Amino acid sequence: MKKLFLIILLLSCAKIYAQQVRISGTITDTLSNQPINGASITVKGKIAGTITDSRGHYTLNADHLKFPVTLEITTVGYGNKEIIVNSATGNNNVSLKQLAVVLNEVVTAATRVNQTSLNSPVSIEKMNQKAVRENPSFTFYDGLQNMKGIEAVTSSLTYKQVNTRGFNDTGNPRFLQLVDGVDNQTPGLNFAVGNLFGASDIDIESVEVIPGAASALYGPVAFNGAMLLHTKDAFEYQGLTLQAKSGINHIGETGVGAKGLYDFALRYAKAFNNKFAFKINASYLTGKDWYADNYTDISAQTAPSMRGPNNPGRDALNIYGDEVSQTLPGIGLVSRTGYEEKDLMNYNVYSLKLNGALEYKFNNNLEAIYQYNYGRGTASYTGSSRYDLNNFVLETHRLELKGSNFFLRSYAVIENSHDSYNTRSLAQFINRDWVQDLNGNTVTPDKADAMWFTRYQDAFNGSISGVAAHDNNTARAFADQGRLIPGTAAFNQAKDVSIHNYGLSGAGVFSNSKFYHTEGQYDFSSAIKIFDLQAGGNIRHYSMFTNGSLFDDKEHRITIDEYGAFVQAGKKLFDNKLGLLASVRYDKNENFKGSFTPRFSAVYSVDHNNNFRASYQTGFRNPTPVDQYINLNVGPITILGGAPANSKNLTVYQNSFTAASVSAFGGAFGADVANGKPFPQAVADNKDLLKKSNVAYIKPEQQKAFELGYKGLIADKLLIDINYYYSSYTDFILNTVVIAPQDNVIGNDGEINPAAASDILNGKIHAFQLYTNASDKVSEQGAGAGLTYLIPKGYSAGANVTLATFDLGKANQNNVAAFNTPKWSGNMMFANSNVSNGYGFNVNWHWQSAFDWYGTFNAERPGRINAYSLVDLQVNKKLPKANATVKLGASNIFNNHVYQAYGSPSIGAIYYVAITFDNLLR
Fold it and tell me: Helix, strand or coil for residue 684?
């Protein structure tokens, strides 16, 4: 790579003193005649382009252009304009007319080629550069929740998960997130950790979101939708940008107090002779994380009326270690004393993002790009437990060759997790480090839980001198003698030992997994002319390594290969009023049958500004590497992934009983023996209660969806976007438990084998939790409506509302992914970029209805998420002479403490001030 950089640098320097042909001019506002900063100027049909500076001036290298050429001038809030340039002489000045709503909003996500959002065949939402810059939330990523149909869940100050159209989760493997075309998921977690490893606010050019199934163009991860984040091009956005934010959170929180948070970012880009350009980015965000301190008693073994802080068997939501419980004779259910999350989690979170890119233009139709991203951070994540992603590292390398009608891209995504840990496991391991026997000697960890309950039982029953009998509090105090106290050296040492002990013997989470991806696309439209045609394909290779802590990979790495290809054709009919588009994609993973995902759409344009759309879309989701290859023996049960190769040395899929039938057999056998029936006879009489399991190997989930919509601009003032959709789902991935005996389940006579039945009674069995699919079918339907209206004197107002309903039908709730989506949600916006003398403001209000959250953190039991509303506000002052903007703002200005997922922290306000210097050293 160093040699490649040197060659590119030498080639670019050789051109520095060559004769240069340039096209230049100034872009201004038609009414005010003021310069327009950041307007984009591109050569039609080429990749050559630039943007205007703060004076509205632009210069474009034209060494390899053949005149005449057509320049396309676009910018947010103004109408598009094209001019023909016949030579490089003279100034090519252009004035642009302000538009009430952005007519020229160009999107690529919907069809993988450029088009206006008004003509999109499917629903699409976009946050443009102006929206990023004027977003009132603390970061642009926080502001995504104000877009129509976007759901957001906050697990941490540094980790927010986004989703569309239901089946939401704190870690969402059904939603694709691309940064400059690179899949931003971590290879081990198999989902993107929000913007922890993404791009900084000052490098984001735009964000596009496709709600709903997008597998037809983007493959298996885009089951629920796709979000494409585009960063700024080094050629177009040159100069130095500096940003500093300082804020406070935890306002009014008991026992915490206000805490500072800080966000610093730098971006510098430079181009040489319009041939070679580079950019560098660095950003660092740090602060005190939100606290998960919901101590509601969720003990499943205690009647709801008996739950609470005085329940001896209390299992508090965000206290860990108290899940370990036992029913003591004459006493009842008793749980161990746990530790609060704040004593286990690292709440001093941060996000460090470093980015560098080299761009070289061979000519105006061919460009090479190398980009490297390094992300390192700490965040809290709510899964089956609360996980501390501590000092987690994600690196990406991207090499791309692109022209005006094609691209070829290869990238690698590499993770390094060695300080991350499971807080629930951590509490349980710490609890086993200090328990003393009745003689005051610390017992070994394997005897600690049993000894703690023995101490409790003896104290409660009055067997301990000096301890009041029949008192749960005094019995607990006696059992807790020697307990490690948070903050002490002994506690911290026990904590550190367990964090760096991976697998079943510790709480640590280790992964050094990676994947490699190559994809390409070519647009044949200019050659065919009769209709539009695009085609593309990709290959991906996973290389997983957890050193035996999650997979059976100590001796050999787990690898997975998959590939896919698509073709898309479009045609305009009836004087270009009707646009038809069809695409089909085929994907193949080495462990599953191939999947076809077609998409058909039609757009009817009454006129340029009013468009009706209809589409049929399909989606599928491959099981994650964990779903396929987990092989974790936790003692009485082994968790086993559903890929056929993962159980090649086992017969569990072919030779096992259903867990329910084993329970029924055991109960009936026990009753017969108790009534005097001989052992062999009791086995023979009840063996037919056993049922051979019929568990299929895992396969992809499937979705079919229909959508209708309208998008139009009325009187150049009102933008309307309405949609309705219906989706059906099958083959949801789930877990099922089976019991494998030593003998064959079926005997030579084709009946249940008595020897296998006897294995159950003699303990010659092993339980397996298998990954498989449910045959149940469920459906969802919903609608959305959005309005944006321009008010005189530069004010704009907007509102949107989303309805999402779920129909379980005849399906078993246990076989279906949790919907986890409010029925109603909505947003309102009011803004003005320049009220007077450079002052501007933006205010957003978000509201959503209450719903029940189901997740593995609470063993799939429902937890209520109450209805809530949030208001984000910012006011800003532009300082043109200093190329600076000062912003004063707040996320959740009224400090409403809200939960967005059950078990995750309560989110309060962030009040901040920010200053941004732009276009320096340009």
Answer: helix
CB 213 within 8 A of CB 619: yes
Rg of the chain over Cα atoms, rounded to whole angstroms, equals 31
The pair of structure tokens assigned to 409 is 């891209």
300-333 per-residue burial string, b: 16 or more CB within 10 A, e: under 16? eebeeeebeeebbbbbbbbbbbbbbbbebeebeb
Provide the whole-model pTM: 0.90
CA-CA distance, 179 to 226, in Å (whole number)?
11
Phi–psi pair at 522, nearest 5 degrees: -135, 135
- The structural domains of the chain, ordered by start, are 20-96 (2.60.40.1120), 627-698+735-773 (no CATH)
Tokens of 722: 């309405």
Per-residue confidence (pLDDT) for residue 835, from 0 to 100: 93
Number of Cβ within a 10 Å radius of residue 652:
18
CA distance 15 to 272: 9
The 3-state DSSP class for residue 61 equals strand
Task: Using the CB atoms, write b or e for 439-458: b if 16+ within 10 Å.
Answer: eeeebeeeebbebbbbbbbb
- Distance, in Å, from the CA atom of 305 to the CA atom of 296, rounded to the nearest integer, reads 13
Contact 334, 379 (CB under 8 A): no
CA angle (514 as vertex; 509, 517 as ends), nearest 5: 150
83: nearest Cα among 63, 67, 101, 64: 67
Q: How far apart are CA 45 and CA 29, in angstroms?
A: 26
pLDDT of residue 874: 98
Spans of the chain, pLDDT less than 70:
1-20, 77, 99-104
- Both tokens assigned to 123: 């629903």
User: CA dist 188 to 19, 197, 551, 770, 922, Å?
Assistant: 52, 14, 11, 19, 41
